[in-house]
Design goal:
single chain, 346 residues, alpha/beta, 10 helices
């Protein structure tokens, strides 16, 4: 089957297809859920069951569930297909390979058709019942509703590093990124349509959303433990996401190189003065300066390598964007109309 990108046209988002309304009746708001999935075979069924149980309480709303299979190598896709067969509200976007969590969110936003779109993970750390609180805040007038973690059931190291990172990021950027928030949030239709125009490859969705403006509010919640399986964001991926967030919305690392350069210059001048003083006033022990020489050389070498690494991170982003490749490739889309088929063309 042909692999195709389902990216929307650059000039305008695709028109939203909403359910027909009978004359004299008010159409119920359609809420779309964007649900990235990567190797979650042990927890998808439980998540779907808990989500549908929560949605059943809201007869004043219609729902669409967009699962994005991000190249899972376990049995996740088979389970998702079964959900699509048994629940007409389910749509499944199946990636040709793994493209990453942030790209999976993007693909879900590209196909979601609701009046509002909720992004959340499927590991049950984000409680489905809280998503309905986001809906209530949206109906109260907010365009963007962030789910802020009041507490989280994670290891102490992860809690500490996440707490520190978000505060460093917020203090070093001009974007007011909400503290202690992940990708669990609600977007109004007009916000989702505008977000679909952002097509950079190294994506930090929570930062992009925060930078868009509009009316934003927060709903606090207590984050639960993972229901099953292992985290899909180990330290390596968390570090990569942190770098994307910093380089996407801040030039502070580049400015720090300049400041570090001045510090090194001052230290170098002090070292020169020290070497000259030892040369003229204590010539009998000038050989001992070898230690200082090695310290200075190693310090300068380390500083230069660090500076090149930071510059390389920004150059790498430029290179990736200049290639202009599709953000993702879709093997098939299993639609809510019961028909399987390839992704929508540009």
């Amino acid at each position: 089957m042909t692999q195709q990108d389902i990216r929307p046209p650059a000039h305008a988002p695709a028109p939203v297809a909403l359910a027909p309304v009978e004359p004299g009746t008010a159409r119920r708001p359609l809420i779309s859920y964007v649900l990235p999935v990567y190797n979650e075979q042990d927890g998808i069924a439980a998540f779907h069951s808990e989500l549908t149980a929560a949605l059943a309480e809201r007869t004043d709303l219609d729902f669409e569930l967009v699962y994005v299979n991000d190249g899972s190598s376990d049995g996740s896709l088979a389970i998702l297909k079964g959900l699509a067969e048994s629940d007409p509200r389910v749509r499944v976007v199946d990636f040709a390979r793994n493209f990453g969590h942030q790209i999976a969110i993007t693909a879900g936003l590209d196909v979601a058709e609701g009046d509002a779109v909720i992004v959340m993970d499927t590991d049950l750390q984000d409680p489905p019942r809280v998503s309905l609180e986001l809906v209530d805040a949206w109906r109260g007038g907010a365009d963007i509703v962030h789910a802020r973690r009041r507490s989280r059931q994670d290891r102490a190291f992860k809690r500490a590093t996440a707490h520190l990172y978000y505060r460093i990021l917020r203090s070093s950027t001009e974007v007011d990124i909400p503290l202690d928030t992940g990708d669990f949030r609600l977007l109004d239709r007009k916000v989702a349509d505008q977000l679909r125009k952002y097509r950079e490859r190294s994506r930090f969705v929570r930062g992009i959303v925060a930078s868009m403006g509009y009316s934003q509010t927060e709903v606090a919640f207590d984050r639960d433990e993972r229901f099953a399986g292992e985290t899909k964001y180990p330290l390596r991926k968390m570090a990569r996401l942190a770098v994307d967030g910093m380089t996407s919305f801040s030039t502070t690392p580049l400015k720090m190189i300049t400041r570090l350069g001045f510090v090194v210059l001052v230290l170098s001048l002090l070292g020169i003065l020290y070497a000259l003083a030892m040369k003229f006033f204590r010539p009998d022990i000038t050989v001992s300066g070898w230690t200082m020489l090695m310290v200075v050389v190693l310090f300068l070498g380390g500083t230069q390598m660090l500076s090149l690494g930071v510059i390389g991170a920004y150059i790498g982003r430029i290179y990736s964007e200049a290639q202009g490749r599709p953000l993702y490739l879709v093997r098939e889309v299993i639609g809510s109309d019961g028909k399987d088929g390839p992704g929508v063309d540009d």
